[in-house]
Design a protein that fits this description.
The protein is an alpha+beta fold. It folds into two domains: about 5-85, Sandwich (Immunoglobulin-like); about 95-260, Glucose Permease (Domain IIA) (Distorted Sandwich). It has helices spanning about 5-20, 100-105, 110-125, 260, and strands spanning about 25, 35-40, 45-50, 50-55, 60-65, 70-75, 80-85, 95, 145-150, 155, 160, 165-170, 175-180, 185-190, 195-200, 205-215, 225, 230-235, 245-250, 255. The strands form four sheets. Strands 9, 12, 13, 14, 15, 16, 17, 18, 19 and 20 form a ten-stranded antiparallel β-sheet that branches. A hairpin with a 2-residue loop joins β3 and β4.
């Protein structure tokens, strides 16, 4: 085969492959608190706002947006650039009174404990594995009445706190908590100052779930769990005013909304009223 013909055939192959190589699929809500699952050709480099995003061997990737994420973002996939417009959300305002002053104003000793524990949580959420457990989808870790929603701003004894970043499900102490998706346990602590019994599960690509205020932790760090596997039991430990499950999710540093991934709450027997947690 002549050199000229070889070059012509090579050019044709590149032209035919170009549309496939540049394909970019996004599945998920482009909204504050949203998580989006993307798909590109294997080997394509992806970046969100100039920061590289992990891409799996099959071309899957994850991006997420914080509660107060800006409206405009830029996603690059290979030679393709796409401007993303993130919808803003309105958040509920909630007021809780009768909170003990010792909880509202931690002592110097408690503050040191809080800092140590926060370091553990940050380290547990820093994992960024190639695993694609998130691809299995998400189900509710427990069913019941939703008593607190993502993004709500709470006032305690008249003082504003930082927003609530999870979804609260009212349930009695001892109720079963199950893994919403497959993953690896990165934190299993029986008693943290704010969140009490706490479990964190990493679902791959820096997407993780946290389960707070547990009465009993039934897993260990490093343990691999399947979707639906029993991991803990509901409690009212830590900075909580009643028994419930507080389920939170993070993508990297972004605090995202679990309810957007799990969908509508399945029908279940009426759960007892719970006031929710304090952070």
């Amino acid at each position: 085969m002549s050199a000229v013909l070889t070059r012509i055939l090579s050019a044709l192959l590149v032209a035919l492959a170009a549309p496939w190589a540049c394909a970019l699929e996004l599945d998920g809500p482009l909204v504050q608190g949203g998580v989006v699952i993307g798909k590109v050709a294997p080997g394509t480099r992806v970046a969100l706002d100039g920061r590289a995003v992990r891409v799996s061997a099959d071309g899957s990737f994850v991006i997420g947006f914080d509660r107060d994420a800006p409206v405009k973002h830029v996603l690059k996939a290979g030679a393709q650039t796409r401007e993303l417009e993130i919808a803003r959300r309105d958040y509920d305002i909630q007021r809780v009174t009768g909170i003990a002053q010792a909880i509202m104003s931690p002592s110097a000793e408690d503050l040191k404990r809080i800092q140590r524990e926060q370091s553990l949580v940050v380290a547990a959420r820093a994992r960024d594995d190639a695993r694609t457990d998130f691809a299995a989808g998400f189900v509710w870790p427990i069913t019941g009445r939703i008593s607190g929603v993502y993004g709500s701003q709470r006032f305690y004894n008249g003082e504003p706190s930082r927003p609530h970043y999870g979804v609260d499900v009212a349930a009695p102490v001892g109720a079963e908590v199950r893994a919403p998706a497959p993953g690896v346990v990165t934190l299993a602590q029986p008693d943290l100052f704010y969140s009490g019994g706490t479990v964190i599960i990493d679902h791959g690509h820096a997407l993780s779930s946290s389960f707070l205020h547990l009465s009993k932790v039934l897993v260990e760090p490093g343990q691999r769990v399947k979707q639906g596997e029993l991991i803990a039991r509901v409690g009212a430990t830590g900075r909580a005013t009643g028994p419930h499950l507080d389920w939170r999710m993070n993508w990297r540093d972004a605090k995202v909304d679990p309810q957007l991934l799990a969908g509508a709450m399945p029908a279940s027997p009426q759960a007892p009223v719970a006031q929710g947690d304090m952070n």
